[in-house]
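Researcher: Please predict.
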Amino acid sequence: MPGPKIAFAAAQAPPAQEALARLSARYPHVPSAEAEAVVALGGDGFMLEMLHRFRERGLPIYGMHRGTVGFLMNEYREDGLLERLARAVPMRFHPLRMRTRSLDGGTGEAIAINEVSLLRETRLAAKIRIKVDGIVRLDELICDGVLVATPVGSTAYNLSAHGPILPMGSGVLALTPISAFRPRLWRGAIVPHAATVAFEVNEPRLRPVSAVADNTEIRDVTEVTVREDPAITLAILFDAEHSYEERILKEQFQA
């Protein structure tokens, strides 16, 4: 049985471009507009870019590591690509939808696959109220910022901010402070994946805050709501012998 029609995509770094040339010469492929799956050559940042680019079509992305960080990528090997694709296991998930209101009264919206981050814009710490499903859980967090991460994003910025690593299928999101000053002992929370997390910026003119959904930044926000969007389903393909669940377990035991 023939496999899916594949398109190749590569980051601009020389290793990715060299891999693109070799694989394109070796395997049949089609333009991305005709593809049923995409083979992405690069690192995790490029995987994120591809997931956003093909989000509306819901194309599964099979990554091979030709970049810097490759947690979401498979090992790069030129042999047996079509067989690997045939055996690959899809990891399906829903991204976050961020909605914002700004100081000028304007509204914004963006999709986040990894995380939504609120970040201070100046030398002054941000002051942020946090609600979960309409209930105030933290009246004022004084911090550099705070983020909501999906399981996919839990090993990215969330992990560097000392947030928890979340297995796929856990049904939760990570709510993680970034350099919290008060309350000193608050280390974040794990909330149900269907929860609506709302942030209200206190003193937004004196202490301006930006909201970032992956690569989309909206500045001078006063309110931000974040919720998983079940209407969007994304898929990353992993080699059967190196599943995402195994990578998550391995990452938790790294020294």
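Model: Residues 14-26 form the longest helix (13 residues).
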